[in-house]
Amino acid sequence: MLEEKQAMPRARGRPRAYDPDRALAAAMQAFWRLGFAGTSLEELSAATDMNRPSMYAAFGDKRTLYRKTLDSYIATAQQQSARIFDAKVGFAEGLTEFFTAALAWYLPEGGPPRGCYLIATAATECMLDENVKLRLQVALDRFDELIGQRVRQAQAAGELSATVDAAALASMVLGVVHTLALRARAGVARAALEKIIAGAVRAICGPNAGQLPA
Questions:
Q1: What is the pTM of this model?
Q2: 100 contacts: CB under 8 Å, gap ≥ 6
Q3: CB neighbour class for 107 (10 Å; exposed up to 12, middle 13-18, buried from 19)
Q4: Is the pLDDT of residue 212 over 50?
């Protein structure tokens, strides 16, 4: 679902010059590993290769920085999800790619299992921060809308029954994504998660999902 932006280390001792996108990506990786409360300012400073004054000047305080990482993650996820759900490919094919791309993000090759950034951090932090709760609610609503729109297109193309509740099915699709995220973070094997993907596509699209028109 997402194509990760790797934060490249910057040589120390140079005049203050930074790439805000890379610094934000590096901060997100720190929050992703440890959560908001567990990530210290020292760890954020080391991750971004910025001293505290520079970090404050660029991003504000720790909570503001965290909110900015959420905005970045949500925007990237929505853009890439929209690209994957291009109506030019069949619904079953797009759904499989959507789940597979999500799994690659949640369980990266050569890296530790991390799950979804929203579930791993915002789902707990929203209990203490109304601003984060609003971001989480809006993100879920937008994903539901994006997937629901693609479901309705599949209905119009005859790939799904016209009697299907598009909004309910969109929530089910997102529920599968959340299952993958949670189980990936818990250390469930990739092969088992891939079976969940295959089963979910068959359950949503029918037993002949592989033969649906492209």
A1: 0.83
A2: 194, 197
A3: buried
A4: no
